[in-house]
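Hey team,

Filing this mostly as a record. A colleague (T.K.) asked me to run one chain through the structure pipeline before their review meeting, and I want the input and output archived in the tracker in case anyone asks later how it was produced. No errors, nothing strange. Just documentation.

Input sequence:
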Amino acid sequence: MVLLSAPRWLRSRLSDRFWRVQEVLKYARHFRGRKNRCYKLAVRSVRRAFVKSTKARKEKKRLLRALWITRIEAASLEHGLKYPAFVSNLLKSQVELNRKMLADLAIYEPKTFKSLAALAQRRRQEGFLAALGDGKEPEGIFSRIVHHY
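Output structure:
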């Protein structure tokens, strides 16, 4: 019988239950108290830790998106635009940068962000002029709604 390595030989000699227990205890090594030694306590703690880490990953995405929006809002207010107007006018101008990129541009490339703000401002003014039309409202019409698709 030829064995390639000692751990494989050892693993073949011990039961599967032993290795399942070791797998759980491996994830529980950094816990305090008996939770890192006793299997019954470690299973509960490891399961709770995995559930919390999954929830934390989703929460991290929410927090980062809120941070990016805050940064974009602060930078766009410097250029005289509120956040919703800035983002919607960029979309109407077919600038498809996501919020993470816009936030990075606001911090590290202020001149580029300023040009984007000017573009959004111009698009906003064009929208106002298009809504006014030639200045003559038809009879019986009080306002027009312009749809941009």
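Quick notes for T.K.: The chain is about 70% helix and 0% strand. The longest helix spans residues 39-78.
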